[in-house]
Amino acid sequence: MIPKVELHLHLEGAAPPAFIRDLAREKSIDISGIFDDQGHYAYRDFAEFLKVYEAACEPLQTPEDFRRLTLAVLEQSAEEGVVYTEAFLSPDFCGGGDVAAWRDYLPAIRDAADQAEATHGITLRGIVTAIRHFGPDQARQTALCAAETADDWLTGFGLAGAETVGMPGDFAWSFDCAKEAGLRLTAHAGEWGGAQMVRATLDALPVERIGHGVQAIDDPALVDRLAEDGITLEVCPGSNVALGVVPNWAAHPIAKLRNKGVKVTVSTDDPPFFHTTMRREYDRLSETFGWTEDDFFALNHVALAAAFCDDATRKRIA
Ligand code: HPA
Ligand code: ZN
């Protein structure tokens, strides 16, 4: 199996539905409405996806819950041949984004990461992520959580959530704060907000990577800028198809972006929500665009070069 590097995975979004259902039952929380008849997460569009996502986070209430979640997620990723993952961690879903609580959750997540590395040989690094629709004030608190816990494991700061709420510049303080703490930066853009949101993000925030970014394809000058500036796109094709960002796999712009010299990488985003896995992403890319083992080798090389880990870790993975 091809050793895979994944740069865009939301930790809570990777929670298997059965894991969340069992946790909800243990705590007598009724979230039955977020599942369909087959027990999968059920939503009709992106707005509903975000609501279901937040409801699925409700039973995650203690550091121990996050320790178990991290172990379950990494075990699954390792089975898919993933050797290195960067996960978006949201202090907003760990005790309300308060630094005092976050300081209790982070060691539990890291403890699970150490255990998974020893057992399954998979390496995890964390990216603290603000949620855009929770607003710039909350993002500042999240950035402070990130800055206070930044080290060689907690290596990045990001922005996810509803991309059409507010503008990237609203979050400049948070990104500057994270950058000053030595964190590497990425932001979701160009999943829903169009090419202009990718442009606005690059203009306002000192990011090295963009989450999704696929709508940049509508603006040829922007595609050239991405290629020239060496911005890496964390592309999640299965997520885009499942949520209706593109109508089908054949219409996905990943191959066009790659052919234009943009650094594209492949990730799953929130795998159980989108009925995907890293192996399925690779299989679909191979079926749709004829990508071969050589293409995937090159793709993973690009991903590892753009990873937010230190060089010693990068060399060990390569
Ligand atoms: N987009 C924005 N926010 C998210 C996503 C996504 O695909 N997944 C989890 N949070
Ligand atoms: Zn995402």
- The Cα radius of gyration reads 18 Å
- The appropriate CATH architecture is Alpha-Beta Barrel
- Number of strand segments: 8
| SSE class | alpha/beta
Count of all domains? 1
* CATH fold node name: TIM Barrel
Ligand list: hypoxanthine, zinc ion
By DSSP (H or I, 4+ residues per run), the number of helices equals: 13
Nearest-integer average pLDDT: 97
Strand order of the largest sheet: 1-2-3-4-5-6-7-8
Unreliable parts: none
Structure notes:
The chain has helices at residues 17-26, 46-57, 63-79, 99-120, 136-149, 172-180, 195-204, 220-229, 237-243, 254-259, 278-289, 293-306, 311-317; strands at residues 4-10, 82-89, 123-131, 154-160, 184-189, 209-212, 232-235, 263-266. The protein has an 8-stranded parallel sheet, with helices on both faces. It is of the alpha/beta class and 318 residues long. The protein has a single domain, classed as Alpha-Beta Barrel (TIM Barrel). It starts with a strand and ends with a helix. The mean pLDDT is 97. Zinc ion binds at residues 8, 10, 160, 188, 211, 269.
